[in-house]
User: Which sequence fits this backbone?
């Protein structure tokens, strides 16, 4: 079977399984198995793939057709120009979250300290540290397995960061210039409505924002002040219908310059505010 024939058949199988981006996923799985890049399909489509490559490819296609996330099959997801290891123990980093990183980078200066609450794969913290100078960071998460992924990503990227197992601020020590968080914010009743790649494969604990979807924002806002320097920033990723609720929470807690920022799709995605300077 040629490279092109494998791709064409793979695309048809994923299309029949109602995979939205079937052409792209078929190509990426083929490149993953054959250790090629996107130019191979155009320039070397007539090359023969080995029987071993063919078997591995169609085995992965079967899993993808069953809505196993592409990133769980390849083990990698790109985010902020970096490659992060992912598995079933962490949320797959999504482009929407890059909006959060970009907004925090606007406030991040050399030598600052960062706390990433609910760090998961570590993609937010490690991206911030990668694109800044002499900053230090701590990532906190309740999941030991998620922290193992974050530590592996730090090691692969050659970035120094500390990771601690903590139920929110329970084991967090010290104060920081910036606290950033992408906490669970899906209402429990809405999880069953999510696409199967998310509903059945992302960790439930990382999705479940409890009954109202804003429980974790409420708790983090309540306790963040003890770990945030005067003038420091607290920044969240939010669900697209949570901008007013979360920004009002921050204002009620005394945060200043609270703003809501939209993602590239024009949806509310980030809330950011500044702690008042200590008097």
Assistant:
């Amino acid at each position: 079977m040629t490279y092109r024939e494998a791709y064409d058949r793979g695309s048809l199988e994923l299309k029949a399984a109602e995979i939205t981006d079937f052409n792209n996923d078929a190509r990426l799985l083929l490149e993953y198995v054959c250790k090629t890049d996107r130019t191979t399909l155009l320039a070397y489509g007539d090359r023969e793939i080995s029987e071993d490559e063919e078997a591995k490819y169609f085995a992965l296609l079967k899993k993808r057709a069953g809505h196993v996330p592409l990133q769980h099959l390849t083990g990698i997801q790109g985010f902020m120009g970096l490659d992060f290891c992912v598995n079933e123990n962490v949320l797959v980093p999504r482009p929407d979250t890059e909006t959060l990183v970009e907004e925090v980078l606007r406030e991040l200066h050399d030598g600052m300290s960062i706390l990433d609450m609910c760090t998961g794969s570590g993609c937010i913290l490690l991206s911030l540290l990668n694109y800044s100078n002499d900053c230090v960071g701590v990532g906190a998460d309740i999941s030991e397995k998620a922290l193992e992924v974050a530590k592996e990503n730090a090691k692969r990227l050659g970035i120094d960061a500390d990771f601690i197992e903590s139920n929110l601020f329970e084991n967090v020590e010290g104060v920081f210039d910036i606290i950033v968080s992408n906490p669970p914010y899906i209402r429990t009743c809405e999880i069953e409505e999510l696409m199967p790649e998310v509903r059945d494969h992302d960790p439930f604990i990382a999705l479940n924002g409890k009954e109202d979807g804003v429980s974790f924002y409420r708790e983090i806002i309540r306790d963040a002040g003890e770990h945030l320097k005067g003038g420091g920033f607290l920044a969240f990723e939010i669900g697209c219908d949570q901008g007013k609720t979360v920004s009002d929470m921050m204002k009620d807690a005394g945060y200043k310059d609270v703003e809501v920022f939209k993602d590239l799709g024009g949806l509310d995605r980030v809330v950011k505010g500044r702690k008042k300077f200590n008097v």
